[in-house]
Amino acid sequence: VELSHANAELRLLEVFYHKIYKIFPTQEKIENINDQYWTLRAEEIPEEEKNLDPNDRLIHVYHFTKDTQQNQAQVQNFGDPFFLVIHEGETLADVKVRIQKKLQVPDEEFSKWKFAFLSLGRPEYLEDSDIVSSRFQRRDVYGAWEQYLGLEHPDNTPKRAFASQQNRHTFEKPVKIYN
């Protein structure tokens, strides 16, 4: 993990199918963590997340595409999920500026992205003038992964030979075949 300063605080997250499912308490014993099915991610806690105002909310933000191969569109998450502080009364236009800066997405590409409030996999698309905090009722980020801000855009990440959620601790030794 690349730290912004020597005394930066870290958190350990449990990520599954591109959603954050758990933030481990700092006192959690490492031997209690099962990484067989989950991806673990360590990251620095941003300063703005440490001192939230009473009306601020820490929300989940996930990338998604809509799979329309079936009769009804289904949301497919991809990429790296993250947390974002949203402030009381902040419009989507304000939030978009901060997300673009955080993800460093060029204007031309970012202008094509759609933003939606998702609850139980159903997107409700937002307008720039919408107040984002009015969609998120609770400040609790533990177990709130089914309510998130979705960033709909094409998945431009390189495809891997194996699904990204397979056990990443399995390594195969290359074998040379001689004729």
Task: Kindly describe this structure.
Belongs to the peptidase C19 family. This is ubiquitinyl hydrolase 1. GO terms for molecular function: cysteine-type deubiquitinase activity. Its EC number is 3.4.19.12. It is a single chain. With 179 residues, this protein is mainly beta. The chain has one domain: Phosphatidylinositol 3-kinase Catalytic Subunit, Chain A, domain 1 (Ubiquitin-like (UB roll), Roll), CATH 3.10.20. It contains 3 helices and 8 strands. It has helices at 47-50, 92-103, 107-110, and strands spanning 10-16, 19-23, 39-44, 57-67, 74-86, 114-119, 122-125, 147-152. The strands form 2 sheets. Strands 5-4-8-6-7 form a 5-stranded mixed sheet, covered by helices on one side. A hairpin with a 2-residue loop joins strand 1 and strand 2. 12% of the residues are buried.
Q: Would you kindly provide a brief summary of this structure?
A:
It comes from Genlisea aurea. The protein is mainly beta and 179 residues long.
Write the layout of secondary structure elements.
Layout: E1 10-16, E2 19-23, E3 39-44, H1 47-50, E4 57-67, E5 74-86, H2 92-103, H3 107-110, E6 114-119, E7 122-125, E8 147-152
Parallel strand pairs: 4-8
Antiparallel strand pairs: 1-2, 1-3, 4-5, 6-7, 6-8
Quaternary class: single chain
The named CATH superfamily: Phosphatidylinositol 3-kinase Catalytic Subunit, Chain A, domain 1
Task: Round the Cα radius of gyration to an integer and report it.
Answer: 18 Å
Number of strands: 8
Q: How is the CATH topology named?
A: Ubiquitin-like (UB roll)
CATH top level is Alpha Beta
Order of helices and strands: EEEHEEHHEEE
Number of separate helices: 3
Proportion of residues in helical segments: 10-25%
Strand order, sheet with most strands: 5-4-8-6-7
Mean pLDDT figure: 80
Keywords: Hydrolase, Protease, Thiol protease, Ubl conjugation pathway
Enzyme class: hydrolase
Family: Belongs to the peptidase C19 family.
EC number: 3.4.19.12
